[in-house]
Amino acid sequence: LTPLIDVHCHVVPKSFPEDPTGGSAPWPSVRCAACQTKAEVFMGDRAFRAIDDRSWDPARRIADMDADGVTLQVLSPMPELLSYWLPPEASSAALARVNETIASMVQARPDRFAGLGAVPLQDPELAARDLGSLKRDLGLRGVEVGSNVLGAYLGDPRFEPFFAAAEAEGMAVFVHALHPISGKDVSPMLAPFAAFPVDTALCAASLIMAGVLERYPNLRIGFSHGGGALAPLIHRMEFGWSATKGFDGRLPQSPKAYARKLYLDSLVYDGAYLAHLTELAPGRVFLGTDYPYLIQQPHPRAFLEEAGAPASAFAAAAQSFLGLPHG
Amino acid sequence: LTPLIDVHCHVVPKSFPEDPTGGSAPWPSVRCAACQTKAEVFMGDRAFRAIDDRSWDPARRIADMDADGVTLQVLSPMPELLSYWLPPEASSAALARVNETIASMVQARPDRFAGLGAVPLQDPELAARDLGSLKRDLGLRGVEVGSNVLGAYLGDPRFEPFFAAAEAEGMAVFVHALHPISGKDVSPMLAPFAAFPVDTALCAASLIMAGVLERYPNLRIGFSHGGGALAPLIHRMEFGWSATKGFDGRLPQSPKAYARKLYLDSLVYDGAYLAHLTELAPGRVFLGTDYPYLIQQPHPRAFLEEAGAPASAFAAAAQSFLGLPHG
Question: Are B213 and B166 in contact (CB under 8 A)?
Fold first, then answer.
């Protein structure tokens, strides 16, 4: 069997340092009664999510990976832990625990885990500086970032230092929806299913339109959930680019040309739509499952087969994204 | 050749009545110097769009239809004319001019035109009452509506009387993006290409989630631009519906089951994505071109062929949507 590399799965450390902010902003913590297998994540005083040992226990994860045929998990923080709403230094303290947890899991089983860390992107210069030590001191392959940071999509000029450093260091950037700006104006039940993919798509569109992919051609950037609602936006942007002579000369290449430089995960819940993404970004779609959460993709190998592309193509895309040796 | 029925193309009357509001809200007007072929639409004092005789001249339209192989145009108002921001009675006065213009074009050439009118949906009871006279007095097949009305998506309970009347009268409802609520938080250049399809998709998702399609099973409702960014949202909603036992029992059928009841136009600018929509809503996708605007679909027959479905399937979907005889 060809390898299956799951680039979208999340980790929560079993504990966090004491809140250094005095409660001025939501600091993450993990509380538990029966701490062996169950716990609850709090953001400040607010209960955020019930979790279990799949979030922190490498042996439990490897057993599940074996059951699903997953060769390698690329561990990333539960997105809420990105903590952009904390003062940057406090963020760094919380993220240090997250990054060290992921790094230690990878160091113990480098045959089964690789890691993406996190940086305080609310301070892009600080985030840029942190990338080097995540790579050299912790052996991480890249970072997970939110689709927007405190209300600004990643195409905003403030993030240029971060993208310059990510390209220079060869650190992969994995974008995940977080506190959506757009798409919230629907019923509360619908918001998780609509606002997240909308925010991811608008983030990707903002990066294309702002020329980030033009200025950093070697940046390796991937989007969770297949870029969310990205594909139909790209088609419309492509037509608009042609109809407006490149948006009045502002964008040298066409949106589809930039879309082919993006990586996308496979977590789109529909085989035919996944096949469409493999046409939009050939060789750039990798497996993502959202393990261990509610909307996790079950039977990942069978799902990839629905798209009609070989599993080896998804593994090769993951290896390219992460800078891992192929084969 | 099989018929080509273009369900998405717009009309602007050559003149409007005097503003009855005293300038308190943007009243539509058409100003021109060389009025034979060129004009400009104003909303209040704001220049909105330069138009030409394609917007009002049936002979010019028919010549273009013949060149493109379009058999029948289903005329609808330029969306900005929907005028939801006017007091309802003022809206009705502006819309009466729009509806009469469309009806007269249809009455002159019923072999080449059918018509969708407009109702003051900011007053859903009034809008519901107007539907009957649009059908009986003007011979219109349905109405065009905005994706949101003054910031409320169409799944909002306030619109129930309108949908009940549309189903009872057998009037088709064609949804077009208008003043998007969501997706504006991107660069101004990107907004027209991203915010419109996002708003259309969230409108459709809100209708599904609110149970409108459950309560009005015979409602014929179509979405411009292929539902915007709808397909990836439907896939995620479908998975969420399964994972949450029907959103905790609130939605009896699955989102994909409701999606198969929607009509969608073909204006998605990508043949492979169009093919995907024909799988999502089999027999429910009809041709739409956005004639006569900048992002108009050229060579419509060739574009439909890219999707791999026969042109007759798109024509049959249009006939079903409009209640026209088949064949």
Answer: no
CA distance A226 to chain B (A): 9
Mean pLDDT in residue range A190-215:
95
Q: Which residue of A has its CA nearest to B238?
A: A269
The residue with tokens 């549309």 is B166
Nearest Cα neighbor of B161 from B214, B215, B204, B200 is: B215
Give the model confidence (pLDDT) of A95-120 as tens digits.
Answer: 999 999 999 999 999 999 999 999 99
Residue A322 to residue B15: CA distance in whole angstroms: 61
User: With an 8 Å Cβ cutoff, are B206 and A187 in contact?
Assistant: yes
- Asked if B186 and A270 come within 8 Å (Cβ–Cβ), the reply is no
| Global ipTM | 0.96
Exposed/middle/buried for residue B85 (C-beta within 10 Å: 0-12, 13-18, 19+):
middle
What residues of B are in contact with residue A272 (Cβ under 8 Å)? 276, 279
How far B206 CA sits from the closest chain A CA (Å)? Answer: 6
pLDDT in tens, B103-122: 999 999 999 999 999 999 99
- pLDDT above 70 coverage of chain A, percent: 100
The position carrying tokens 């004639």 is: B291
pLDDT at B189: 85
How far is the C-alpha of A246 from the C-alpha of A88, rounded, in Å? 38
Residue with tokens 């002579």: A245
Calpha distance B229→B286 (Å, rounded): 17
Helix extents (H) in chain A: 58-68, 88-108, 124-136, 160-169, 191-209, 212-215, 230-243, 245-249, 255-259, 271-280, 300-306, 311-322
Residues in chain B: 327
Phi, psi of B192 (to 5 degrees): -65, -25
Mean residue pLDDT across chain B: 96
Confidence tier at B1 by pLDDT (50, 70, 90): confident
Is the pLDDT at B158 greater than 80? The verdict is: yes
pLDDT for A182? 86
Nearest beta carbon to residue B236 from set A209, A232, A269: A269
Yes or no, beta carbons of A182 and B185 under 8 Å apart: yes
Contacts of B90 (CB under 8 A, 6+ apart): B20, B21, B25, B27, B83
Q: Which residues of A touch B181 (CB under 8 A)?
A: 185
The whole-number pLDDT of residue B327 equals: 65
Is pLDDT at B128 greater than 90 in this prediction?
Answer: yes
The Cα–Cα gap between B154 and B175 comes to 9
Tokens 């109405």 correspond to: B143
Average pLDDT over residues A126-139: 97
A235–B269 CB contact, under 8 Å: yes
Is B189 in contact with A209 (Cβ distance < 8 A)? Answer: yes
